[in-house]
Design brief:
The structure holds two protein chains of two kinds.
Chain A: E1 3-7, E2 10-14, E3 19-26, E4 30-38, E5 44-49, E6 56-58, E7 61-66, E8 71-76, E9 85-93, E10 99-101, E11 105-110
Parallel strand pairs in A: 2-11
Antiparallel strand pairs in A: 1-3, 3-8, 4-5, 4-9, 6-7, 7-8, 9-10, 9-11
Chain B: E1 4-7, E2 10-13, E3 19-25, E4 32-38, E5 45-51, E6 57-58, E7 67-73, E8 76-81, E9 90-97, E10 104-105, E11 109-113
Parallel strand pairs in B: 2-11
Antiparallel strand pairs in B: 1-3, 3-8, 4-5, 4-9, 5-6, 7-8, 9-10, 9-11
The chains are: A mainly beta, B mainly beta.
């Protein structure tokens, strides 16, 4: 059975802190790993990772994939209150491009 | 970037009625569209995957006759919740992709059945 496990499930930090969110997976027919940010509506796309060891960066957010150890991390530096959201990790499969989502990490950034 | 539009954003209706939700890819042709359901404070659960012009593939436990999916064109898929009951109340989200884009999501539809 395909599994995507995120940790921690919930995290509370103060503005300016750096956070690391974890995602491990066990799936068949891995195609890519994606990170999404979900606030009140539907998820918005952050990163798609297909190759090991290549960091993707967008502003204060960065992410990297390890296909040998089957995990990815999402880093957020100098957090702001606007970073408060649920961060979802998803693994896309070659089977019809299906995605399997983790349970999400609920990040709360306090002023 | 890729834009996916979902309509309506919020529906309240009586038990027993059918509700149709539309999902459109606005600036790309979506070879595959996906329908998810999300309960409060839970992650997205894939309901079905649909490819343009063919029947949808449903996940185990999702009733095909209850959740009718039509993907008639490369830019439009619809989900119809037939004879909806209060337990069908949920947040329904569609996503779409082509061979080049990752999945991009619509804004979701909050369905409340009274």
């Amino acid at each position: 059975e395909d599994k995507v496990v995120q940790s921690p499930l919930s995290l509370v930090v103060h503005e300016g802190d750096t956070v690391t969110l974890n995602c491990s997976y066990e799936v068949t027919n891995f195609r890519s790993l994606l990170w999404y940010k979900q606030e009140k509506k539907a998820p918005t796309f952050l990163f798609m990772l297909t190759s090991s060891g290549i960091e993707k960066k967008s502003g204060r957010l960065s992410s990297i994939l390890d296909k040998k150890e089957l995990f990815s991390i999402l880093n957020i530096t100098a957090t702001q209150t606007g970073d408060s959201a649920v961060y979802l990790c998803a693994v896309e499969l070659y089977n019809n491009n299906d995605m399997r989502f983790g349970a999400g990490t609920r990040l709360t950034v306090k002023p | 970037g890729a834009v996916v539009s979902q309509h309506p954003s919020w529906v309240i209706c009586k038990s027993g009625t059918s509700v149709k939700i539309e999902c459109r890819s606005l600036d790309f042709q979506a070879t595959t569209m996906f329908w998810y359901r999300q309960f409060p404070k839970q992650s997205l659960m894939l309901m079905a995957t649909s490819n343009e012009g063919s029947k949808a593939t449903y996940e185990q436990g999702v009733e095909k006759d209850k959740f009718l999916i039509n993907h008639a064109s490369l830019t439009l898929s619809t989900l119809t919740v037939t004879s909806a009951h209060p337990e069908d109340s949920s947040f329904y989200i569609c996503s779409a992709r082509d061979n080049y884009q990752p999945q991009h999501f619509g804004d979701g539809t909050r369905l409340s059945i009274l």
